Amino acid sequence: MKQPTHHLSGLFTLTLLFFGFLAYGQEYDILIKNGHVIDPKNNIDDVRDVAIADGKIIEVGPNIPASQARKVIDAKGLYVSPGLVDIHTHVFWGTKPNAYLSNSFSSLPPDGFTFRVGVTTVVDVGGAGWRNFETFKAQTIDVSKTRVLAFLNIVGHGMSGGPYEQDLTDMNGKLTAMKAAQYRSDIVGIKVAHYSGSEWHPIEQAVKAGEQARLPLMIDFGGHTPQLSLERLLMEELRPGDIFTHAYADVNGRTSIVDEDGKVLPYVKKAQERGIIFDVGHGGGSFWFSQAQPAIKQGFFPNSISTDLHTGSMNAGMKDMMNVMSKFLNMGLPVADIIKYSTWNPAQEINREDFGHLSKGVEADVTIFTIKKGKFGFVDVVGEKLEGTQKFECEVTIRAGKVVYDLNGLSY
User: Fold this and answer.
1) Would you list the domain boundaries of the chain?
2) Fold (topology level) of 27-81+363-406
3) DSSP string, 166-230
4) Which of 10, 30, 223, 315 is the most buried (most CB within 10 A)?
5) 3-state secondary structure of 262
6) Could you give the 3-state DSSP secondary structure of residue 358?
7) Cα separation of 233 and 219, whole Å?
8) Helices within 250-403 (DSSP H only)
9) What residues are paired with 45 via a beta bridge?
10) Which of 114, 95, 113, 112 shows the shortest CA–CA distance to 103?
């Protein structure tokens, strides 16, 4: 005869209620405890806890109970910041031959090169133009865990190299603005680069596109024959909020911001005061210590730190975002300023204030890092070496509330 089972079902119900109560008490998916939080937007530079639930920042404050979280990361002795924002990268990767940084081999699929150095947002600058942006969107933006945004090249074929980037007939402000308006959530600016002629036409068309689409420009300026005036670019052509990248370069066909006497040019300082953004854009050929060190000593700091990431730069002196940040640390910039130039500032520059900070309710992009002490060497693009004693190293990266990189298993 079959035995009654009502007492077993009652026990099962009590068990479910018990564990349901425990789960209800755990308000947070992740709690980062005891870390030194640096959040420039919210003026936080102190030990705080950071609570995350449903992919969002829920609370930043002292002594949040660990019992309220499903996962606790002890960040004692470490720094906690918003996820890093690299505003100058090349991630329109692909297999098209002889296409330079547009759907070709020199660009990089972002997820393999972002999270391990604390970067949660990248901006591809000019890889795609209005003709091939949909390919970039489908191939990279829509399938990456990294948040990927874009500056649309004024050249319709994008940064395809060679004659493509010298074709004035393919630089159309109206069509570029129309494409930017069509994909406003993905396209955050207009890019000009690599044109070597003496005409101002590319910049004029980019300004036209920027005004029509209400977007900033990023200018890679240099290599012009004859040389174009840097003072005219900064003081007349560019608008407040436009971005001058490769700020510390010393390349042929472009006036450098630091003169032969080691002084920052007066109009360069005035340009920054009038709202022109100076971005690092290190790259494989665009960062000289002979420019950066005297500029820093004279108080001329970048508005944003970025890598110009591609296969060439990552395997040379640039390496990665935290290596570039470490150069500025060893040139004397405070940690809090470096984090500001790598998070909140670049987010503002592209008018995306929904990230780059740890405010309640924003998507939870978080970087946990340490500053290692020791003997380190940092190299610029011409082989000059800076000896340093400090270096940033990423421990944990969280993107949209999920741990996407963990160097030493702190989240396990």
Assistant:
1) 27-81+363-406, 84-349
2) Urease, subunit C; domain 1 (2.30.40)
3) G-GGGB-HHHHHHHHHHTTTTEEEEEE----SS-SHHHHHHHHHHHHHT--EEE-----SSPPPH
4) 30
5) coil
6) coil
7) 9
8) 266-273, 289-297, 311-314, 321-330, 335-342, 344-349
9) 38
10) 95
Helix pair 321-330, 289-297: axis angle to 10 deg? 50
pLDDT of residue 23: 45
Query: In Å, what is the CA distance from 297 to each residue of 102, 170, 290, 328?
Result: 37, 42, 11, 11
CA-to-CA separations, 331 to 324, 327, 344, 372, 378, in angstroms, rounded: 11, 6, 21, 16, 11
The first and second tokens of residue 220, run together, are 């890679």
Is the separation of the CB atoms in 52 and 31 below 8 Å?
A: yes
Domain 84-349: CATH architecture, name and number where available:
Alpha-Beta Barrel (3.20)
Signed CA dihedral, 218, 141, 93, 164: sign only: negative
Q: Select from 382, 220, 387, 246 the least CA-distant residue to 316.
A: 382
**pLDDT of amino acid 257:** 98
Place of tokens 């052509």: 237
The closest alpha carbon to 139, from 178, 185, 186, belongs to 186
Which residues of the chain register pLDDT less than 50?
A: 1-8, 11-23
Q: How many CB atoms lie within 10 A of CB 412?
A: 8
